[in-house]
Amino acid sequence: MFSAAPTPRRVLPPARAAAETDRTEATAGTSGGPEGAEPPSPKAGSRNPFFDNAKYLAIVLVAMGHSWEPLTDGSRAAEAFYMTVYTFHMPAFIIISGYFSRSFDMRKDRLQRLVTGVAVPYVLFETAYAFFKRWADNDPGQPISLLDPWFLTWFLIALFIWRLTTPLWQIVRWPIPLAVAIAVLASVSPDIGDDLDLQRVLQFLPFFVLGLSLRAEHFAMVQRRAVRIASVPLFAAALVMAYWAAPRMTSAWFYHRDSAQELGTTWWIGAVMTLALFGCSVVLTACFFSWVPTRRTWFTVLGAGTLYGYLLHGFLAKGSRFWGWFDDYAWLHTPLGEIAVTLIAGAVVTALCTPPVRKVFRFAMEPTMAWAFRKDPADTARARVSS
């Protein structure tokens, strides 16, 4: 599907790269470059295709992973694919989020974007999911609780917290080791509880901090042909390892939502597993990034709508379980059925990332909400002068 041969790339001067970071902090990406060079920059006002491609491919894997979950009990192969994909798909998203949060500070416009682009969608979808479960699962007692994220909304509250802490990570001397230490401590602390899904916030934190610490040249490094070639046996080894581990361990380790004690094991195993999974996730995420196209493709435009696909596909993912589709149709548990489920999941999430869907749901995902914020007196004065 992807060519292993390197494609011609333009070099981005360091000064221009710094300027691009501020302009594209929330949504754009960066493309891979030649060995030892920084990735190219798109023309002014355009998006970098590399990260849009990466986000689209990652959201497809997220949807496929959710479609495989009901199949894992009866299929060791499905469980192996499930574990392998869960090792890196959310870490890839979180690293991207961290990379484009590097310039975040407490400036008014950035705080407003954080509220409208993260906090508001969290409130709306947390509420919508609660009502959906009441109806689809015949569960009228399902509470609406902004303190207990349900299903996919944990990522929004986590991103809100991570981004607010960005200035702190920018000033500490060893941010990644510190974040890993916090993740390890969280994994052995059962008293953290479920409020705001803090276990996930803290256990996934190292990936966000890693993204904050990365630079353009790091993505250029993983785009080298040698890395692409090495990624093939590494992915193969990961699948073999997952196939071996499938009947021997629970996939709950990959969710990072529970402490070791809550998973029925001792604290030191939780610490070891956290470190081991972090290392495996970083390696497989690098392999994943090495195969992401750096040029514009037919799906590049869909990368701008991955949050739409992420949040909207959750209704179908959960609805399929509430309505018993995987129980009523036994053929879904055959090899051909598993392939069909995979393709359907990919097609559905692709459709949900398209511009028409984004246009319909922009009111919930990207509201402007100018009415909700105070006007800066300096802005008002400038507007009067210009008029």
From TrEMBL:
Residues 1-47 are annotated as: Disordered. Residues 1-18 have a biased composition (Low complexity). GO terms for molecular function: acyltransferase activity, transferring groups other than amino-acyl groups. Keywords: Acyltransferase, Membrane, Transferase, Transmembrane, Transmembrane helix. The keyword Acyltransferase applies. The keyword rRNA processing does not apply. The chain crosses the membrane at residues 80-101, 113-132, 144-162, 174-192, 198-214, 226-246, 266-291, 298-316, 336-357. Residues 49-353 form the Acyltransferase domain. Coiled coil: none annotated. This is Acyltransferase family protein. It comes from Streptomyces auratus AGR0001.
